Amino acid sequence: MLPEKFLLRMKNILGEDYGAFENALSEPSVRGVRVNTTKIAVDDFLAVSSLSLDKIPYLQNGFIPESADGIGRSAEHHAGMFYVQDPGAMATVGALDIKRGWRVMDACAAPGGKASQLASAVGEDGFLLANEFVPKRAKIIVGNFERLGIKNAVVTSLDTSRLAEMFSSYFDLVLCDAPCSGEGMFRKYDEAVSEWSEENVLACAKRQTEILENCQRCVKAGGYLLYSTCTYSVEENEGVVERFLANHPEFSLACVKDELKAVTADGLGKFKEARRFYPHKSRGEGQFIALLKKDENSEDLPTILYKDSAKSPSKADEAVARAFLKDNLKNGFSGRIISVGEQLALVCHDLPLPPYSVFMGGVLLGEVKKGILFPHHQFFSAYGADMKRKVELKRGDARVEKYLGGEEIDTDITDGGWCAVTYEGVALGGGKISGGRVKNHYPKGLRNK
Questions:
Q1: Minimal CA–CA distance to 426: which of 150, 45, 144, 34?
Q2: pLDDT tier at 381 (50, 70, 90 boundaries)?
Q3: DSSP-derived secondary structure letter, 183
Q4: What is the DSSP string of 89-134?
Q5: What does the alpha-carbon distance between residue 230 and residue 177 come to, in Å, rounded to a whole number?
Q6: In Å, how far from its chain's centre is CA 309?
Q7: Is 204 a catalytic site residue?
Q8: 204, 230, 348, 419: which is the annotated catalytic residue?
C-alpha cells in the first residue's frame, strides 16, 4: 500500500496524468541491460547474445530483455558483456554527449551502473573517479568494475567535502546521483515504501543540497554538473536545483539530448529543461535529471593535488611483473606498476592515488611468490582479450558451464602456461594450461553453483 500523502503529492504534480501514473505503479518493475562497450561492441553483442531484446530509444547500447530470469548466471553476464540496469538510471548518463578523454567523477557511485557507463564513455584516454561514502558499498563497485573489465578508474570511499578539497576545478563532468527518498523505486523495492515519510523527503533535500555544493567545486570552467535522483518530490529535485542556481550564477540549466527529451516530462515550473522520467511515459523506474553547465569564463579554483600515495614494488617484483606481461600480452602494456598490499596492480591513468580510502587504483595483476607472478582474476577480465594464449569458447560449447562451475576443461593448445578463457571473444576468466587441460582459476565466489 502506497503512502496516502505520497499519492496526494503526486496528484498535485501530475494533474490529469495521475491516473496513467497510478496504473503504471501497479505493473511489474522493468529491468534493462546496457551493453558494456568496454568489452564488446553493440553489434557484436547482438550477434552472439541469447537474449531477446527491445531497443531503448534514447541510448545506443541500452535494451530491455523479454525475460530477465536467470540472466545473472548467463555466460554473457559472467564475461561482463552487459550490466543489468534500470532504464531510467541509464537515462542520466545519456543526457549529454560525453567526450572521450574527459576526466569524470561519480560522487555517489554505488553500485556502479552509472559510473561504469561513464568509464566506457570516456575510454582509456579518459579517467573516472568513482566515489562511494559507505565502504561496504564501495567494495560492490570494485566487484562490478572487475567483471566489466574497467581499467581507467579509481574507486574511493570519501566524504564529498574531502573530494571538494582534493579536486578543485578538476573534472570535465561530475555526476551527483544523490541519495534520496526513493519514490521512483516504489514498485521495485518494498523497503522504499515502508521507509517513506515527508520528514525524510525534507532531510534528503537538505543532504542533497550539501552534496551538490561540494560537487560543484570539482567542476572546471566550461564543464558539466549532472544532478539526478530516483525520486519525484519537488523538494529533492527542482527545489534543490533552484537553491543551487541562486547561489551559483556561474552555472545554468542546460538542454539534454533530444532522444532523452522525447521520452521524458519537463521539469516543473521554470525548470522545464530538467527531465522527469515517469513509468507511464517510458519503460523504467522514476528518475529526475538536471544538466548544469559551468560558464566557460568563470574563474577556476586552484587545483592542488595531493602527493601520490601509490607504493612502488621492489625492483625484483616489478621485474617479475614486467616479464609476465611481456610473455603473456600480444600488444604489450602501458602504465605504471604499483604495490597494493600483497598484490601488484597496473595503473593506466595518471591520477595520483588519494592518500586514504582507496578501494581500487588500477587493475590487480596478481601476487609474486618465490619469483613467480600468480595472476588475479581482475587481470584476466581486463586484459584477457589481448593474451597470447586464449581458450576460446563459443555458445553451445559444453565447456562453458564446466568452466563457470569451477571444473577443469580440455584444450587443444599444446603450449603450457597462463591463458585467458574467453566466451565469444570476450574475456571470461583465466586458467593455466598443462597437458591439454586448463586448470580453472575462476574465483569460487563467482562460480555458478
A1: 45
A2: very high
A3: G
A4: HHHHHTTS-PPTT-EEEETT-TT-HHHHHHHHHH-TTSEEEEE-SS
A5: 8
A6: 24
A7: no
A8: 230
Cβ contacts of residue 343 below 8 Å, gap of 6+?
364, 365, 366, 367, 376
Smallest CA-to-CA distance from 268 within 260, 259, 276, 280 is with 276
* Model pLDDT for residues 90-142, shown as the tens digit of each residue: 999 999 999 999 999 999 999 999 999 999 999 999 999 999 999 999 999 99
Residue pair 1/26 in contact (Cβ under 8 Å)? The answer is no
Residue 102 CA to residue 128 CA, distance in Å, equals 9
Q: For the segment 22-48, what is each residue's pLDDT rounded down to a tens digit?
A: 999 999 999 999 999 999 999 999 999
Grid cell, residue 56, equals 531503448
Distance CA 133, CA 130 (A): 10
Q: What does the CA dihedral 238, 244, 246, 249 come to, rounded to 10 degrees?
A: -120
CA-nearest of 185, 207, 149 to 348 is 149
222: left (phi over 0), alpha (psi -120 to 50) or beta: left
Q: Quote the cell numbers at residue 291.
A: 544538466
C-alpha cell at 152: 581507467
